Amino acid sequence: MLGLTPDEWVAVGLSLKVASVATLASLVPGIAVAWLLARRDFYGRALLDGLVHLPLILPPVVTGYLLLLAFGRKGPAGAWLAEFGVVFAFRWTGAALACAVMGFPLMVRAMRLSLEAVDRRLEQAAATLGANPLAVFLTVTLPLSLPGILAGAVLAFAKAMGEFGATITFVSNIPGETQTLPSAIYTLTQVPGGEGGALRLTLVSILVSMGALLASEVLARRVSRRLGSA
Amino acid sequence: MALAVDVALKRGAFSLEAAFESGPGLTALFGRSGSGKSTLIHLIAGLARPDRGRIVVGGETLLDTGARVSVPVHRRRIACVFQEARLLPHLSVRGNLGYGRFFAGRRAGSAAEIAPVVEMLGIGHLLDRRPAGLSGGETQRVAIGRALLAKPRLLLMDEPLAALDEARKAEILPYIERLRDEAGIPIVYVSHAVAEVARLASTVVVLEDGRVAAAGPADAILRRAEILPAHEAEVGALLDMVVEDHDASGGVTRLTGTAGRLVLPHFDRLVGSPVRVRLPARDVLVATQMPVGLSARNVLPGRITALSPLGEAVMVEIACGEVSVAARLTRASARDLGLAPGLAVYAIVKSVALDPAGVGTGRRTLEI
């Protein structure tokens, strides 16, 4: 199918793996941060908001370099995590970390908007019926903000599929380990006769992104029909 | 004492300082919008905190700012029926009914039975529907059922009928009466409609600008025009009576009570069932002699106990048997008839002035 070479398949598979892991791993922190920003007024709220949005504004190369400084083998976080056997530098896990960080602001933004849109009066009603705050969150807030949470996850996934600058700066461009779709396309455009491969991978890129968007649209529609608002 | 409240709260220009107690049965919080009714409900439910105060329900202190006691909302076991119902849109009717029941069951070890509540509210055919597909009246009945199944020790109802049209109100009122008489849970009911309060309440607390303007038995409060200035036309006596018989050919239903007999346009209620009738003071005539050749069917003999001026009018209190009826007359009428306390008179009411739709079921539970 598509006439991809084995090397190109490797890049596609790696990209899907990196993007999936990045999205799944940032789901819970994403919801937590979105909830904090949407619902809580605390000291340092503006700082957290800024920090989350930083990767959106900074040049991706800068974000990648900061990750390298922090999570590289000699970086403070990297050295500490290495003691537990968790290594990011020049591994696919590092690519996932870079993608997660880059997609985080998009994810949090969508989730936060939908959490803010949940009718607080429904949560109050649930509380008067005996639900403690955690139960209210799990049975009312979360289901009602599901469309936005899905949208956030899809955005993060799409962003991860396309992330280039931070990834290549942080974990380089190692075929089979850190060479994701964009890196592979970039490499192919730099070698003579690589145009065909670049075009094929571009096509795959478009297909995957479109597929993700479509899937999220279908899911969101199903959810909102279930909520009775469609 | 089912509920004792003494709270104070200040938010900008609005200040609330209210203290009242209520027993079993239904207590109406009555007042115009902005008088603090809903705020009070939120404070009792625990959805808001007063600046200072004490709230005791069924002997348990839920809030005491002095003693730093504040039971969180979900442990208060006070269920609410809100004006907008607030059904959970992502759950079916069954899911909504089961929601509070689930938490009540975990707390008490046993859950309330769904079937009797579903039957009482007539919502059996709705169980698999989504809240978005329900009518306003159905929505409120489900909300009432959901609140009941949470096994609350107090039920708060915040203008549950305000968003409904007259037909839907008439559809729900009997269910609330059954709730009051059969569920055995004290109810605090917020309303700004005299007809609702007259029909449902055993106790009335009148709120005005965040203060309790008056509190007491419904009959004693709802006849006092001076504390219900906005509802002058609606004040009057409440009579608890029993259906004596129906006269199908005459199109009337006869009631009997300690005040005597009343004849109303026919309405459907079993003979012997207790009913409550509101006698608006402005629909009551006064005669000093037994009238003859009169179309009005209701002539209650009594004795004047008090005359009190009310603007251009006079409120005449007439003791009929053990109950008291209020009549609103012009000063000229009162003067020309020579009305004075102690005078024997007849209170006269046209049957059609008494609205069968406003007849509530009488309270079977005794007031304590």
UniProtKB/TrEMBL annotation, chain A:
Keywords carried by this UniProt record: Cell inner membrane, Cell membrane, Membrane, Molybdenum, Transmembrane, Transmembrane helix, Transport
Keyword Cell inner membrane: yes
Domain called ABC transmembrane type-1: residue spans: 12-214
Compartment annotation: Cell inner membrane; Cell membrane
Any GO CC annotation of this UniProt entry: plasma membrane
Topology of this chain in the membrane: Multi-pass membrane protein
Keyword Repressor: no
InterPro entries on file: MetI-like, MetI-like_sf, ModB_ABC
Main location: membrane
GO MF assignments: molybdate ion transmembrane transporter activity
Gene3D superfamilies associated with the record: MetI-like
TM region(s), chain numbering: 20-38, 50-72, 84-108, 129-158, 198-220
SUPFAM superfamilies (UniProt xref): MetI-like
Protein family membership: Belongs to the binding-protein-dependent transport system permease family. CysTW subfamily.
Alphabetical list of NCBIfam families matching this protein: modB_ABC (TIGR02141), PRK09421.1 (NF006939)
Role according to the record: Part of the binding-protein-dependent transport system for molybdenum; probably responsible for the translocation of the substrate across the membrane.
Protein name: Molybdenum transport system permease
Source species of the chain: Methylobacterium oxalidis
TrEMBL record, chain B:
Gene3D superfamilies: 2.40.50.100, P-loop containing nucleotide triphosphate hydrolases (3.40.50.300)
Pfam families: ABC_tran (PF00005), TOBE (PF03459)
GO MF, one annotated term: ATP binding
GO CC annotations, alphabetized: membrane
Keywords from the UniProt entry: ATP-binding, Cell inner membrane, Cell membrane, Membrane, Molybdenum, Nucleotide-binding, Translocase, Transport
Lineage top rank: taxon: Bacteria
Domain ABC transporter: 2-234
Record keyword Nucleotide-binding present: yes
Domain Mop: 293-358
Name of protein: Molybdenum import ATP-binding protein ModC
Protein species of origin: Methylobacterium oxalidis
Source species taxonomy: Bacteria, Pseudomonadati, Pseudomonadota, Alphaproteobacteria, Hyphomicrobiales
